[in-house]
Amino acid sequence: MDEEFVPAHLAGRRFDILKDPAKTMEQKGLPVGGYIRISTRKDSQKTSIENQEKVLAQWAEVNGYNLVRFYKDVKTGKFAYLRSDMQELKKDVKKGRIKGVVSKEIARTARDIIDVLELKREIERNGAFFVAIKENYDSRTDDDEFLLILHAGLAQKEQKTTASRVKVVQMIKAREGKTNVPQPAYGYMLSADRQHLVPNPETAPVYRFIVEKFLEGWGQLKIARYLNRRGIPSKRGRTWCTNAVRVILSNPVYLGITIYNATTLVRDGSGRQKRVVRPREEWIVRHGTHESLISGEDFRRVQLVVEKRREKNCKEWTCERKYLGSGILRCAACGGKVYGTRFERKWRKKTGTDEKSYYYRYVCHGANGKCDSGIKYWDMEAVDRNIRDLLRELFSDKERLYRHVKENTDLFAADLSAAVKERETLKIRLARNERALKKQQEAFEGDVITMEEYGRRTAELRQEKQELLEKLNRLDGRLNERDAVMDRLEAI
Questions:
Q1: What angle do CA 400, 403, 407 make, to 5 degrees?
Q2: CB contact at 8 A, 165 and 121
Q3: Is pTM beyond 0.70 here?
Q4: H or E element: which one contains 404?
Q5: How far is residue 425 CA from its own chain's centroid?
Q6: In which band, very low, low, confident or very high, does the pLDDT at 282 lie, cut at 50, 70 and 90?
Q7: The dihedral of CA 414, 415, 416, 422: what is its sign?
Q8: Geometric angle at alpha carbon 211, from 207 and 217, rounded to 5°
Protein backbone atom coordinates (compact mmCIF):
# COMPACT_ATOMS: atom_id res chain seq x y z
CA MET A 1 0.00 0.00 0.00
CA ASP A 2 3.00 2.34 0.60
CA GLU A 3 3.54 2.88 -3.11
CA GLU A 4 0.16 4.57 -3.34
CA PHE A 5 1.32 7.52 -1.25
CA VAL A 6 2.96 10.55 -2.95
CA PRO A 7 4.86 13.30 -1.06
CA ALA A 8 3.17 16.70 -1.02
CA HIS A 9 5.98 18.41 -2.95
CA LEU A 10 5.47 15.91 -5.84
CA ALA A 11 1.69 15.90 -5.99
CA GLY A 12 0.30 17.58 -9.08
CA ARG A 13 3.75 18.48 -10.46
CA ARG A 14 5.67 17.11 -13.43
CA PHE A 15 9.28 16.24 -12.70
CA ASP A 16 11.70 14.44 -15.01
CA ILE A 17 12.69 10.91 -14.02
CA LEU A 18 16.33 10.60 -12.94
CA LYS A 19 18.47 8.90 -15.58
CA ASP A 20 21.65 7.78 -13.83
CA PRO A 21 24.48 7.16 -16.35
CA ALA A 22 26.36 5.12 -13.71
CA LYS A 23 23.90 2.27 -14.27
CA THR A 24 25.39 1.74 -17.73
CA MET A 25 28.79 0.74 -16.31
CA GLU A 26 27.99 -3.01 -16.34
CA GLN A 27 25.86 -3.00 -19.50
CA LYS A 28 27.36 -4.36 -22.72
CA GLY A 29 26.41 -3.70 -26.32
CA LEU A 30 25.13 -0.17 -25.63
CA PRO A 31 24.90 2.07 -28.73
CA VAL A 32 27.47 4.87 -28.61
CA GLY A 33 28.50 7.67 -30.95
CA GLY A 34 32.06 8.62 -31.84
CA TYR A 35 32.84 12.35 -32.10
CA ILE A 36 35.61 13.48 -34.47
CA ARG A 37 36.77 17.05 -35.14
CA ILE A 38 39.51 18.61 -37.27
CA SER A 39 40.24 22.32 -37.63
CA THR A 40 40.70 22.64 -41.42
CA ARG A 41 40.07 20.75 -44.65
CA LYS A 42 43.77 20.57 -45.53
CA ASP A 43 44.99 17.27 -46.98
CA SER A 44 47.35 16.86 -44.02
CA GLN A 45 44.33 16.62 -41.70
CA LYS A 46 42.45 13.98 -43.70
CA THR A 47 44.62 11.24 -42.19
CA SER A 48 43.63 12.56 -38.76
CA ILE A 49 40.00 11.62 -39.44
CA GLU A 50 40.99 8.07 -40.42
CA ASN A 51 43.19 7.70 -37.35
CA GLN A 52 40.47 8.94 -35.02
CA GLU A 53 37.96 6.53 -36.59
CA LYS A 54 40.32 3.57 -36.02
CA VAL A 55 40.99 4.52 -32.39
CA LEU A 56 37.28 4.94 -31.57
CA ALA A 57 36.27 1.71 -33.33
CA GLN A 58 39.00 -0.25 -31.53
CA TRP A 59 37.96 1.19 -28.14
CA ALA A 60 34.31 0.26 -28.72
CA GLU A 61 35.26 -3.29 -29.73
CA VAL A 62 37.55 -3.86 -26.74
CA ASN A 63 35.05 -2.47 -24.20
CA GLY A 64 31.98 -4.17 -25.67
CA TYR A 65 30.06 -1.17 -27.03
CA ASN A 66 28.20 -0.83 -30.33
CA LEU A 67 29.61 2.16 -32.25
CA VAL A 68 26.59 3.15 -34.38
CA ARG A 69 27.76 6.45 -35.91
CA PHE A 70 30.66 8.86 -36.33
CA TYR A 71 29.91 12.59 -35.91
CA LYS A 72 32.46 14.66 -37.84
CA ASP A 73 32.99 18.43 -37.78
CA VAL A 74 35.53 20.57 -39.62
CA LYS A 75 35.51 23.58 -37.31
CA THR A 76 37.57 25.39 -34.72
CA GLY A 77 37.33 23.96 -31.21
CA LYS A 78 36.68 27.36 -29.66
CA PHE A 79 32.93 27.68 -30.30
CA ALA A 80 30.99 24.42 -29.95
CA TYR A 81 27.59 25.89 -30.90
CA LEU A 82 28.81 26.51 -34.48
CA ARG A 83 29.32 22.80 -35.24
CA SER A 84 26.47 21.04 -37.04
CA ASP A 85 27.39 17.42 -36.22
CA MET A 86 27.84 18.36 -32.56
CA GLN A 87 24.21 19.54 -32.54
CA GLU A 88 23.13 16.29 -34.23
CA LEU A 89 24.98 14.32 -31.55
CA LYS A 90 23.11 16.17 -28.79
CA LYS A 91 19.77 15.47 -30.48
CA ASP A 92 20.53 11.74 -30.77
CA VAL A 93 21.52 11.60 -27.09
CA LYS A 94 18.29 13.33 -26.11
CA LYS A 95 16.19 10.91 -28.20
CA GLY A 96 18.02 7.91 -26.73
CA ARG A 97 19.53 6.73 -30.03
CA ILE A 98 22.96 6.62 -28.39
CA LYS A 99 23.75 6.02 -24.71
CA GLY A 100 27.28 7.37 -24.71
CA VAL A 101 29.73 9.64 -26.51
CA VAL A 102 33.38 8.72 -27.02
CA SER A 103 36.16 10.96 -28.35
CA LYS A 104 39.87 10.43 -28.87
CA GLU A 105 40.65 13.34 -26.52
CA ILE A 106 38.83 16.17 -24.78
CA ALA A 107 40.38 18.75 -27.12
CA ARG A 108 38.50 17.10 -30.02
CA THR A 109 35.14 17.97 -28.40
CA ALA A 110 35.95 21.54 -27.32
CA ARG A 111 38.84 23.77 -26.35
CA ASP A 112 36.95 25.84 -23.81
CA ILE A 113 36.21 24.84 -20.21
CA ILE A 114 32.62 26.14 -20.29
CA ASP A 115 31.81 24.30 -23.53
CA VAL A 116 33.25 21.02 -22.20
CA LEU A 117 31.28 21.26 -18.96
CA GLU A 118 28.02 22.12 -20.75
CA LEU A 119 28.48 19.20 -23.17
CA LYS A 120 29.19 16.72 -20.37
CA ARG A 121 26.23 17.93 -18.30
CA GLU A 122 23.81 17.83 -21.23
CA ILE A 123 24.89 14.28 -22.11
CA GLU A 124 24.62 13.21 -18.47
CA ARG A 125 21.21 14.83 -18.02
CA ASN A 126 19.83 12.49 -20.68
CA GLY A 127 21.23 9.36 -18.99
CA ALA A 128 24.28 8.98 -21.25
CA PHE A 129 28.00 9.12 -20.53
CA PHE A 130 31.09 10.78 -22.00
CA VAL A 131 34.51 9.14 -22.48
CA ALA A 132 37.82 10.67 -23.62
CA ILE A 133 40.32 7.92 -24.47
CA LYS A 134 43.62 9.84 -24.31
CA GLU A 135 42.94 11.23 -20.82
CA ASN A 136 41.34 7.94 -19.67
CA TYR A 137 38.35 10.03 -18.58
CA ASP A 138 34.89 8.59 -17.90
CA SER A 139 32.13 10.97 -16.76
CA ARG A 140 30.46 8.17 -14.75
CA THR A 141 33.32 8.16 -12.23
CA ASP A 142 33.85 11.94 -11.96
CA ASP A 143 31.04 13.20 -9.71
CA ASP A 144 32.65 16.54 -8.78
CA GLU A 145 33.94 17.24 -12.35
CA PHE A 146 37.39 18.05 -10.93
CA LEU A 147 39.28 15.90 -13.42
CA LEU A 148 37.23 17.22 -16.34
CA ILE A 149 38.02 20.82 -15.43
CA LEU A 150 41.75 20.04 -15.27
CA HIS A 151 41.79 18.35 -18.69
CA ALA A 152 39.59 21.05 -20.25
CA GLY A 153 41.84 23.78 -18.85
CA LEU A 154 44.88 22.18 -20.47
CA ALA A 155 43.02 21.92 -23.78
CA GLN A 156 42.05 25.61 -23.59
CA LYS A 157 45.65 26.60 -22.83
CA GLU A 158 46.86 24.58 -25.82
CA GLN A 159 44.34 26.36 -28.05
CA LYS A 160 45.62 29.76 -26.89
CA THR A 161 49.23 28.74 -27.56
CA THR A 162 48.39 27.43 -31.04
CA ALA A 163 46.40 30.58 -31.88
CA SER A 164 49.34 32.73 -30.75
CA ARG A 165 51.74 30.87 -33.07
CA VAL A 166 49.35 31.21 -36.00
CA LYS A 167 48.91 34.93 -35.32
CA VAL A 168 52.68 35.48 -35.34
CA VAL A 169 52.95 33.84 -38.77
CA GLN A 170 50.03 35.92 -40.09
CA MET A 171 51.55 39.16 -38.79
CA ILE A 172 54.86 38.35 -40.47
CA LYS A 173 53.01 37.76 -43.76
CA ALA A 174 51.07 41.02 -43.32
CA ARG A 175 54.28 43.02 -42.79
CA GLU A 176 55.72 41.44 -45.94
CA GLY A 177 52.70 42.65 -47.90
CA LYS A 178 51.21 39.19 -48.33
CA THR A 179 47.54 38.39 -47.86
CA ASN A 180 46.02 36.28 -45.09
CA VAL A 181 42.46 36.16 -46.43
CA PRO A 182 41.10 32.87 -47.83
CA GLN A 183 38.22 34.71 -49.58
CA PRO A 184 39.40 37.89 -51.36
CA ALA A 185 37.22 40.99 -51.66
CA TYR A 186 34.86 41.19 -54.64
CA GLY A 187 36.88 42.16 -57.72
CA TYR A 188 40.03 40.29 -56.64
CA MET A 189 41.28 36.71 -56.58
CA LEU A 190 44.33 35.01 -55.09
CA SER A 191 47.53 34.80 -57.11
CA ALA A 192 48.94 31.45 -58.26
CA ASP A 193 51.01 31.13 -55.06
CA ARG A 194 47.98 32.29 -52.97
CA GLN A 195 50.12 34.98 -51.31
CA HIS A 196 48.84 38.12 -53.03
CA LEU A 197 45.63 39.66 -54.42
CA VAL A 198 45.28 40.18 -58.19
CA PRO A 199 42.33 41.66 -60.12
CA ASN A 200 39.68 39.15 -61.12
CA PRO A 201 39.00 39.57 -64.87
CA GLU A 202 35.30 38.74 -64.37
CA THR A 203 34.38 40.76 -61.27
CA ALA A 204 36.83 43.70 -61.40
CA PRO A 205 34.85 45.35 -64.28
CA VAL A 206 31.66 44.96 -62.22
CA TYR A 207 33.30 46.79 -59.31
CA ARG A 208 34.34 49.64 -61.60
CA PHE A 209 30.77 49.77 -62.97
CA ILE A 210 29.37 50.06 -59.42
CA VAL A 211 31.70 52.95 -58.60
CA GLU A 212 30.97 54.71 -61.89
CA LYS A 213 27.20 54.52 -61.50
CA PHE A 214 27.33 55.52 -57.84
CA LEU A 215 29.27 58.68 -58.71
CA GLU A 216 26.73 59.37 -61.48
CA GLY A 217 24.01 59.50 -58.85
CA TRP A 218 22.65 55.95 -58.69
CA GLY A 219 21.59 54.75 -55.25
CA GLN A 220 22.68 51.50 -53.66
CA LEU A 221 19.25 49.95 -54.19
CA LYS A 222 19.17 50.90 -57.87
CA ILE A 223 22.62 49.38 -58.40
CA ALA A 224 21.64 46.16 -56.60
CA ARG A 225 18.44 45.81 -58.63
CA TYR A 226 20.29 46.46 -61.90
CA LEU A 227 22.89 43.77 -61.16
CA ASN A 228 20.19 41.28 -60.14
CA ARG A 229 18.21 41.91 -63.33
CA ARG A 230 21.36 41.22 -65.36
CA GLY A 231 21.92 37.96 -63.51
CA ILE A 232 25.29 39.08 -62.09
CA PRO A 233 25.96 37.15 -58.85
CA SER A 234 27.39 38.75 -55.71
CA LYS A 235 30.58 37.60 -53.97
CA ARG A 236 28.91 34.51 -52.50
CA GLY A 237 26.96 33.72 -55.65
CA ARG A 238 23.73 35.18 -54.30
CA THR A 239 21.56 38.16 -55.19
CA TRP A 240 22.76 41.69 -54.50
CA CYS A 241 21.43 43.84 -51.67
CA THR A 242 22.11 47.42 -50.56
CA ASN A 243 24.39 46.27 -47.74
CA ALA A 244 26.63 44.35 -50.18
CA VAL A 245 26.97 47.45 -52.37
CA ARG A 246 27.67 49.66 -49.36
CA VAL A 247 30.44 47.35 -48.09
CA ILE A 248 32.14 47.34 -51.49
CA LEU A 249 32.00 51.13 -51.82
CA SER A 250 33.57 51.70 -48.38
CA ASN A 251 36.31 49.03 -48.50
CA PRO A 252 39.84 50.56 -48.70
CA VAL A 253 41.26 47.30 -50.12
CA TYR A 254 40.47 48.64 -53.62
CA LEU A 255 43.11 51.36 -53.06
CA GLY A 256 45.78 48.66 -52.93
CA ILE A 257 45.86 48.77 -49.11
CA THR A 258 45.96 45.75 -46.80
CA ILE A 259 44.80 46.20 -43.18
CA TYR A 260 45.40 43.34 -40.76
CA ASN A 261 44.87 42.81 -37.01
CA ALA A 262 41.99 45.30 -36.92
CA THR A 263 39.47 42.97 -35.20
CA THR A 264 39.40 39.86 -33.04
CA LEU A 265 36.84 37.36 -31.72
CA VAL A 266 35.94 37.14 -28.04
CA ARG A 267 33.33 35.18 -26.08
CA ASP A 268 30.38 37.14 -24.67
CA GLY A 269 28.50 36.33 -21.48
CA SER A 270 26.47 33.57 -23.17
CA GLY A 271 29.57 31.89 -24.65
CA ARG A 272 28.83 33.13 -28.17
CA GLN A 273 31.50 34.61 -30.39
CA LYS A 274 31.57 38.39 -30.74
CA ARG A 275 33.78 40.43 -33.06
CA VAL A 276 35.39 43.52 -31.51
CA VAL A 277 37.70 46.22 -32.90
CA ARG A 278 41.28 46.42 -31.71
CA PRO A 279 42.93 49.79 -30.85
CA ARG A 280 44.10 51.52 -34.03
CA GLU A 281 47.74 51.47 -32.92
CA GLU A 282 47.65 47.66 -33.14
CA TRP A 283 46.48 47.66 -36.77
CA ILE A 284 48.97 46.64 -39.46
CA VAL A 285 48.48 48.82 -42.55
CA ARG A 286 50.39 48.15 -45.76
CA HIS A 287 50.21 50.30 -48.90
CA GLY A 288 50.77 49.05 -52.44
CA THR A 289 50.41 45.36 -51.60
CA HIS A 290 48.31 44.75 -54.75
CA GLU A 291 46.98 46.55 -57.81
CA SER A 292 44.38 49.19 -56.99
CA LEU A 293 40.99 49.28 -58.74
CA ILE A 294 40.13 52.90 -57.85
CA SER A 295 42.09 56.13 -57.56
CA GLY A 296 42.44 57.93 -54.27
CA GLU A 297 40.48 60.91 -55.64
CA ASP A 298 37.52 58.77 -56.73
CA PHE A 299 37.54 56.88 -53.42
CA ARG A 300 37.30 60.17 -51.49
CA ARG A 301 34.46 61.31 -53.76
CA VAL A 302 32.58 58.08 -53.07
CA GLN A 303 33.01 58.48 -49.29
CA LEU A 304 31.84 62.09 -49.54
CA VAL A 305 28.64 61.05 -51.31
CA VAL A 306 28.06 58.24 -48.79
CA GLU A 307 28.50 60.65 -45.89
CA LYS A 308 26.12 63.23 -47.40
CA ARG A 309 23.42 60.62 -47.92
CA ARG A 310 23.90 59.34 -44.40
CA GLU A 311 23.46 62.84 -43.00
CA LYS A 312 20.23 63.29 -44.93
CA ASN A 313 19.01 59.97 -43.52
CA CYS A 314 17.70 58.91 -46.93
CA LYS A 315 15.70 55.68 -46.98
CA GLU A 316 15.08 53.67 -50.15
CA TRP A 317 11.77 51.86 -49.94
CA THR A 318 11.40 48.47 -51.58
CA CYS A 319 7.58 48.41 -51.69
CA GLU A 320 5.71 49.28 -54.86
CA ARG A 321 4.51 52.71 -53.75
CA LYS A 322 6.92 55.62 -53.36
CA TYR A 323 6.33 58.28 -50.70
CA LEU A 324 7.03 61.84 -51.77
CA GLY A 325 7.55 63.14 -48.26
CA SER A 326 9.15 60.18 -46.53
CA GLY A 327 12.12 61.34 -44.44
CA ILE A 328 11.39 64.97 -45.44
CA LEU A 329 8.14 65.72 -43.63
CA ARG A 330 8.28 66.25 -39.88
CA CYS A 331 5.74 65.78 -37.13
CA ALA A 332 4.33 69.12 -35.90
CA ALA A 333 4.18 67.86 -32.30
CA CYS A 334 7.67 66.42 -31.76
CA GLY A 335 9.65 67.56 -34.81
CA GLY A 336 10.65 63.98 -35.63
CA LYS A 337 10.91 62.70 -39.20
CA VAL A 338 7.85 61.05 -40.75
CA TYR A 339 8.25 57.93 -42.90
CA GLY A 340 5.95 56.14 -45.31
CA THR A 341 4.81 52.64 -44.38
CA ARG A 342 2.74 49.92 -46.07
CA PHE A 343 0.11 48.01 -44.07
CA GLU A 344 -1.73 44.84 -45.00
CA ARG A 345 -5.50 45.05 -44.67
CA LYS A 346 -7.00 42.71 -42.10
CA TRP A 347 -9.98 42.19 -44.41
CA ARG A 348 -9.77 41.51 -48.16
CA LYS A 349 -12.08 42.55 -50.92
CA LYS A 350 -14.09 39.79 -52.54
CA THR A 351 -12.17 39.60 -55.81
CA GLY A 352 -12.22 35.84 -56.16
CA THR A 353 -8.43 35.66 -55.57
CA ASP A 354 -6.14 35.39 -52.58
CA GLU A 355 -4.20 38.55 -53.46
CA LYS A 356 -3.22 40.67 -50.47
CA SER A 357 -4.61 44.18 -50.15
CA TYR A 358 -2.60 47.08 -48.71
CA TYR A 359 -3.08 50.67 -47.60
CA TYR A 360 -0.39 53.33 -47.20
CA ARG A 361 0.24 55.79 -44.39
CA TYR A 362 2.80 58.29 -43.19
CA VAL A 363 3.81 57.38 -39.66
CA CYS A 364 5.43 59.18 -36.72
CA HIS A 365 6.51 56.61 -34.12
CA GLY A 366 7.31 59.20 -31.49
CA ALA A 367 10.71 57.58 -31.01
CA ASN A 368 12.30 60.75 -29.59
CA GLY A 369 9.94 60.75 -26.62
CA LYS A 370 8.66 64.28 -27.35
CA CYS A 371 5.42 63.34 -29.12
CA ASP A 372 2.08 63.88 -27.40
CA SER A 373 0.94 60.38 -28.37
CA GLY A 374 2.53 57.03 -29.16
CA ILE A 375 2.07 56.73 -32.93
CA LYS A 376 0.48 59.10 -35.45
CA TYR A 377 -0.83 58.19 -38.93
CA TRP A 378 -1.62 60.33 -41.96
CA ASP A 379 -3.29 59.21 -45.17
CA MET A 380 -0.62 58.90 -47.85
CA GLU A 381 -2.84 59.84 -50.79
CA ALA A 382 -4.07 63.06 -49.16
CA VAL A 383 -0.59 64.16 -48.05
CA ASP A 384 1.02 63.40 -51.43
CA ARG A 385 -1.77 65.30 -53.19
CA ASN A 386 -1.01 68.37 -51.04
CA ILE A 387 2.71 68.02 -51.83
CA ARG A 388 2.03 67.86 -55.57
CA ASP A 389 -0.26 70.92 -55.40
CA LEU A 390 2.43 72.87 -53.54
CA LEU A 391 5.13 71.95 -56.08
CA ARG A 392 2.81 72.82 -58.96
CA GLU A 393 2.19 76.25 -57.46
CA LEU A 394 5.88 76.88 -56.86
CA PHE A 395 6.85 75.93 -60.41
CA SER A 396 3.91 77.59 -62.18
CA ASP A 397 5.84 80.84 -62.74
CA LYS A 398 9.11 79.69 -64.30
CA GLU A 399 10.53 83.18 -64.83
CA ARG A 400 9.98 84.20 -61.22
CA LEU A 401 11.55 80.97 -59.93
CA TYR A 402 14.58 81.30 -62.22
CA ARG A 403 15.07 84.96 -61.27
CA HIS A 404 14.82 84.22 -57.55
CA VAL A 405 17.42 81.43 -57.69
CA LYS A 406 19.85 83.53 -59.75
CA GLU A 407 19.51 86.40 -57.28
CA ASN A 408 20.59 84.09 -54.46
CA THR A 409 23.50 82.32 -56.15
CA ASP A 410 25.82 84.55 -54.14
CA LEU A 411 25.18 82.10 -51.32
CA PHE A 412 27.23 79.63 -53.35
CA ALA A 413 29.31 81.87 -55.60
CA ALA A 414 31.17 83.79 -52.90
CA ASP A 415 34.90 84.22 -53.29
CA LEU A 416 36.25 80.73 -52.63
CA SER A 417 39.79 81.25 -53.91
CA ALA A 418 41.13 80.85 -50.38
CA ALA A 419 39.24 77.54 -50.10
CA VAL A 420 40.77 76.34 -53.38
CA LYS A 421 44.29 77.15 -52.15
CA GLU A 422 43.58 75.46 -48.82
CA ARG A 423 42.41 72.32 -50.63
CA GLU A 424 45.66 72.15 -52.63
CA THR A 425 47.68 72.60 -49.42
CA LEU A 426 45.75 69.78 -47.73
CA LYS A 427 46.43 67.44 -50.67
CA ILE A 428 50.17 68.17 -50.44
CA ARG A 429 50.16 67.53 -46.67
CA LEU A 430 48.19 64.32 -47.20
CA ALA A 431 50.74 63.04 -49.73
CA ARG A 432 53.57 63.82 -47.28
CA ASN A 433 51.69 61.96 -44.54
CA GLU A 434 51.36 58.84 -46.71
CA ARG A 435 55.09 58.93 -47.54
CA ALA A 436 55.89 59.26 -43.83
CA LEU A 437 53.75 56.20 -43.03
CA LYS A 438 55.61 54.14 -45.62
CA LYS A 439 58.97 55.27 -44.22
CA GLN A 440 57.93 54.17 -40.73
CA GLN A 441 57.03 50.74 -42.08
CA GLU A 442 60.37 50.42 -43.85
CA ALA A 443 62.24 51.55 -40.72
CA PHE A 444 60.45 48.98 -38.55
CA GLU A 445 61.04 46.14 -41.01
CA GLY A 446 64.70 47.13 -41.22
CA ASP A 447 65.01 47.00 -37.41
CA VAL A 448 65.84 50.72 -37.31
CA ILE A 449 63.08 51.43 -34.76
CA THR A 450 61.39 49.27 -32.14
CA MET A 451 57.82 47.99 -32.18
CA GLU A 452 56.86 50.53 -29.49
CA GLU A 453 58.30 53.45 -31.48
CA TYR A 454 56.64 52.18 -34.65
CA GLY A 455 53.24 51.96 -32.94
CA ARG A 456 53.52 55.44 -31.39
CA ARG A 457 54.67 57.21 -34.58
CA THR A 458 52.17 55.49 -36.87
CA ALA A 459 49.34 56.29 -34.43
CA GLU A 460 50.28 60.00 -34.59
CA LEU A 461 50.51 59.94 -38.38
CA ARG A 462 47.16 58.15 -38.75
CA GLN A 463 45.50 60.68 -36.45
CA GLU A 464 46.93 63.52 -38.55
CA LYS A 465 45.77 61.75 -41.75
CA GLN A 466 42.24 61.40 -40.38
CA GLU A 467 42.08 65.12 -39.54
CA LEU A 468 43.40 66.08 -43.00
CA LEU A 469 40.84 63.85 -44.72
CA GLU A 470 37.97 65.36 -42.70
CA LYS A 471 39.06 68.90 -43.64
CA LEU A 472 39.49 67.89 -47.29
CA ASN A 473 36.02 66.30 -47.43
CA ARG A 474 34.42 69.43 -45.98
CA LEU A 475 36.16 71.64 -48.55
CA ASP A 476 35.26 69.28 -51.41
CA GLY A 477 31.62 69.37 -50.38
CA ARG A 478 31.62 73.17 -50.23
CA LEU A 479 33.35 73.64 -53.60
CA ASN A 480 31.38 70.91 -55.38
CA GLU A 481 28.10 72.44 -54.18
CA ARG A 482 29.14 75.84 -55.57
CA ASP A 483 30.15 74.35 -58.93
CA ALA A 484 26.93 72.39 -59.40
CA VAL A 485 24.29 74.96 -58.42
CA MET A 486 23.73 76.36 -61.92
CA ASP A 487 23.69 72.85 -63.45
CA ARG A 488 20.94 71.85 -61.04
CA LEU A 489 18.98 75.00 -61.82
CA GLU A 490 19.08 74.28 -65.58
CA ALA A 491 17.96 70.71 -64.94
CA ILE A 492 14.98 71.93 -62.88
A1: 140
A2: no
A3: no
A4: helix 398-407
A5: 38
A6: confident
A7: negative
A8: 145
